[in-house]
Design brief:
Blueprint (H helix, E strand, L loop, with lengths): L13 E5 L4 H6 L10 H7 L20 E5 L13 H18 L3 E5 L1 H8 L7 E2 L9 E5 L10 H8 L1 H12 L1
Parallel strand pairs: 1-2, 1-3, 3-5
Antiparallel strand pairs: 4-5
Protein name: Mismatch-specific DNA-glycosylase
GO molecular function: hydrolase activity, acting on glycosyl bonds
InterPro entries: MUG/TDG (IPR015637), Uracil-DNA_glycosylase-like (IPR005122), Uracil-DNA_glycosylase-like_sf (IPR036895)
Length: 173
């Protein structure tokens, strides 16, 4: 299985960070490709995208000011297959991407992703008090996996804070 390319460019409004690609994502070469993953539905229903995009359109997010990456590039069936060494290397690589591309907000798609990145154990949903990389805002959202036990409406409400946060940042610029 091969990793998939980041969808990233400088000065994004939001860089979405997942755990790692699924097997389906590796096969298609696109992010959040597993049919049980609700990422694309969540983005649309939270008002982040103007319509529900298909995974094959993941590059189109760049035109809207959004990017996609993962903390670990290796595809697996489940996140529990990721090793400590992979997380350690992934943390450093992600910090470097954030420093290089300077997104306004880094949205971690899952508390576990942010816990692996930040080393913090207890954290709230949404904007974090302090970012790991100064000059960006760390934002923690629920995983979009179909395995998440939260109701989809609750998940969407958390993601709905992102467009509001982007608007606030742009109004201050």
């Amino acid at each position: 299985m091969k990793p998939i390319e980041d969808r990233i460019k400088k000065q994004l409004d939001v860089l979405f960070v997942g755990f790692n690609p699924s097997i389906k994502s590796s096969e298609t070469g696109t992010h959040f490709a597993n049919p049980t993953n609700r990422f694309w539905k969540i983005l649309f229903e939270a008002g982040i995208t103007p319509r529900k995009f298909d995974t094959s359109e993941d590059r189109s997010l760049l035109n809207l000011g959004y990017g996609l990456t993962n903390i670990v590039p290796r595809p697996t069936k489940a996140a529990d297959e990721i090793t400590k060494e992979e997380y350690k290397l992934g943390r450093e690589q992600l910090k470097e991407k954030i420093l290089t591309y300077k997104p306004k907000i880094v949205c971690f798609v899952g508390k576990g992703v942010y816990q692996e990145y930040s080393g913090k154990k207890s954290l709230p949903w949404g904007e974090q008090e302090e970012s790991v990389v100064p000059g960006t805002i760390d934002f923690v959202a629920p995983s979009s996996s179909g395995l998440v036990r939260m109701r989809i409406g609750e998940v969407i409400e958390i993601y709905r804070q992102l467009p509001e946060l982007v608007a606030t940042i742009k109004s201050k610029a």
